[in-house]
Amino acid sequence: MAVEARARNSMEPQMIAAKVQELTDVELATLLCLVANQHCIIETEGDALDALQEELQLVTANVFGLSAVVVNCSSTTTFEDFSSGVLIPKRSSNGGDFSKNDLIFISHFHNPEDGFANLEESSQWVEDDRASLSSVVHKTVVQGTSREPVLPSELLLIRNKEVLLLTELSKKVNLEVEVRRYLHNVLTFLRMHRAVAGGISPQATKHFELLVKSVNPYFDIRFQCLAPLHNLEYVTPSLVALAARKIYRHRITIVAPEHERSMQYGSDLTAVAALLEGVTAEQVIEEVLAMVEVPL
Questions:
Q1: 108-133 burial by CB neighbour count: b if 16+ within 10 A, else e?
Q2: Rounded distance, CA 18 to CA 12, Å?
């Protein structure tokens, strides 16, 4: 019996990993944040925002068995406003500005061309030739603050116990010395990139360092939570690179040409402006990942 129990336990992560492979990008981003117990930003094109909202509500209900509430936020929304809207315990808000990107775990951009799988499969989906994508949305999930599952557990793709198992597995993931060094090199190159004005903040650095040192269990799954999703017991350089793309995409701010560091050494402003024109956080991250030597 003990042997059978161990066999079942060893198979469970493999079964979860198989499920993960079936998830859409929006579902996977949601799962990652549930495993890490953190917030995330999921973006899309402006005319698809309502469809994305509906998709997230359906993902919450039909994939994870959770209920959803919609809070309309703006640049002036405080953490107190947000927490009141979803009725969660209030934590320190670093001045009350919920719009600060450092409070957000990861960010992800969903391309509308990739579709909205749950919305399109829903019986409530309605095509209207006169309506734009943003208006072809019909509420299918009761909005509220209840934490009771919307669907029976056996009908869910990812059950709560599986999320908890992934969280526990993430705490046991190994981080080798070479991978730790690679992680710190990525962080250093991001901070020193000439196009970066900010975003490689003490808070973000703390996330990295506490992960590497495994001092605080609240932070130590920032990257390690990726490994169990791939049925791995260790962190690979590719997972570090993936995490960097998600962690810093919304944090990095691009420097204004007049403040670019070479200006203090007499660089031409017009030339610097031309160099920085159109540069995005995503491009900076990709340049850094291409420059930093990857451990074998």
A1: bebeeeeebbbbeebeebeeeeeeeb
A2: 10
Instruction: Identify how many contiguous H helices and E strands the chain contains and give both numbers.
Output: 12, 4
Distance CA 148, CA 150 (A): 6
**Using 50, 70 and 90 to split pLDDT, how confident is the model at 71?**
confident
Mean of pLDDT values over 170-198: 87
pLDDT 10s digits, 7-51: 444 457 678 777 888 889 999 889 888 887 777 889 999 999 999
Q: What is the DSSP letter of 24?
A: -
Phi, psi of 197 (to 5 degrees): -95, -30
The H or E element containing residue 1 is none
Calculate the CA dihedral of residues 65, 69, 75, 81 and round it to 10 degrees: -120
**pTM assigned to the model:** 0.73
Considering only CA atoms, give the Rg of the chain: 21
CB atoms within 10 A of CB 150: 19
